[in-house]
Amino acid sequence: MMLKSTKSWQIVCASLLLLAASYGIVRACAGGEWDETYTSNYTPEVFVADTTQTPFFYTWLFYYQIGFDTQHNERFNTTNVADWNRYLKGSIDSSSLDYLLNRANDASIDRFAAFFDGKALPDSLTLKVKGLSRSNPQHKEFVRYLGYAKKCEQYAVFYYNDYYWEVKRILPSKETLGKLEKQLRTGFEKSADQFLKERYWFQLVRYYFFYDSERCIAEFENYRSKLTPSTMYYRTMAYAAGAYYATGKFGIANYYYSLIYDGSSLLKTVAHASFHPQDESDWKQTLDLCKSKEERITLWQLLGIRYADEVRSMKEIYKLSPRSPKLDLLLTRYVNKQETAIPYSTNSDSAKAAIAQAIRWCQQVANDGKTSNPFLWSVSAGYLSFLTGDYPKSAQYYQKAAKSAPNSPLAQSQLRLLSLLTSIKLLPTITPASEQALLADLQWLYALSEESVNPRFRYYTAQGWVKTELSKKYTEQGDIVKAECFTTSSAFYASNDNVERLKAFFQNPKANAFEKFCMEMSEKKLADLWEYQAIRAAYSDSLGKAIALMEHVGQTSTLLGNPFVGRKNDCHDCDHAALQKVKYTKMAFLKRLNEAEAAIVGKDAFNNAFVVANAFYNMSHYGNARAFYECSVLGSAHYAPYAIPDEFVDMLTSNQTAAKYYRMALKAATSNEQKAKCLFMLAKCERNEWYNGIFYSDKKNEYRYDPNQVDFIQWSSFKALKAYSSTKFYKEVLNECGYFRKAVRG
Asked: Which residues contact 104 (CB under 8 A, 6 or more apart)?
């Protein structure tokens, strides 16, 4: 891979210098609940125990788990308190130090400085700081230094808006800062205390980073050899590295960033974000600056992470030290990238060749057994083989991995999970023997939960994949009942024979352990099947049969509106909000509907037929009783007919049965008012059937809009209704229904 130097990258690097200077960066989009845990089978935490490496696991976020690193102003708060607490030997308690270092403003610090000149502290400050003593010279030096440090915050600390990445900022002028540079210089040169001297040195280098890059570099280089690397040392080096970068000395800048990355856990993300070789030339310069093999290894790891070229970096590190633990992070990144990339089989030939070559190298390393983490390499070689479709080789590597598996629940779970995936792929067909062989692992997989396993363990994707794969295999071998248990399909329920076969499966008194497991896995349970059949019977106007089937369901849900009332305009929300003297469950609705239907032949034929017609209308998607058909099989919350599964849309949107009973009511009507009502409701049925044929018959129409599309025709019942213009109902309809007004005018 050749490194590139582009204008866009130069702009990015200019902003990344701010990271080394402890600037803030954009805070939006940090983290989130939906992460790689839900899209991967390979858990990097299994293999890399060093938690300082965690942010660099492969992720679509900027950093794993945290998103953007936004801690630039607060990163060292806790460390500073702990360092000063040790230096002051606990003479000032930690909460007081936290206030002084992290929360007190300039004016408050000036009050504490005045305290050492003999002035009294106000009560508000004595309550916040305990233990400060005029007789302790360390306390006096601490407060003096703190006064200068607070003034440095004018240019060193900046808070970004949560939603904007601002690159430009206005620094205070040197004149505004007054004697600050001189005060820092004096403190550095006169301090005999090493602890204080380091901190004055840090402040001086940081000052020059903002105001004089060359002096920043000189100040750092003049004193660095006198210090042992520490947090303060690496913080200071970060500013020097930024100054080198600003002056175009990329080789040494990136070398320093690698030292910071390796030496300071708190600055790892800062160093990583700032590290950016421009091309192969300055990359070679950086490598030439290394004083040890370990420094070169660190550089290669950082390059692999920064440029997402893990394989190149792994090869170079492996040449230097096959047992380097810095290989581990890069390998986990590469594996996670491969599992989330486009499927291997769909790559171009050149891409396949490159991937195959990289995987062969990983497999060879696993075979050689020279690394410090053979479990990682064997598992990774096995999973990479799985991803490229070489399932026998995948199984061989997992067997090899088992011999070096750590005795930890997370490692054991990872190997068990990936081995299960391969075992399923290796099955040519699923036999009773293979079902029993798989059972324990399947039961384990689907018993996993956030409470029962490490929360970082990635098993969600496997749970879905295993169901899909088993369902596919069962379908291919003709066992559609078990296939349905693992992955449900609306098409399965289009056949009542299928439903009966599934019912028989659920009711088998001699079911074995695997069959019982299938029943547990099924989204649909026996009661769901009875309910679905009862609903279908109701739509076919077989009410007695529907009631008998619904008896098996047990308690049924309650409808939200009165299904026996008719409306001029469809408004199920209005009906749901209306006062209801009687609340109907699905079973109660069926029984009442059956009674009304049986009474149509009696003396009150019109009212009973009209009520039955209303019920069938409201049972449809257009009415107020959609809840009647909502169930596990048919689904729920269908916002439009487009959302209804294809297999059920005709049944749930049809108004033909309702129209049949409205015509019965019309025939039995004894007044013009009654006839007008029947004709209007018939017109609504005609309208809905027209919608079904014109719009809802093609789901592509959901995303089409034609302003010239006809949405109204002269339905025959509207034409017939015109003959009843003298009725009260006619006038009400004319007032409420725009379509009817068009019909009258037309």
From this structure: 112, 128, 150
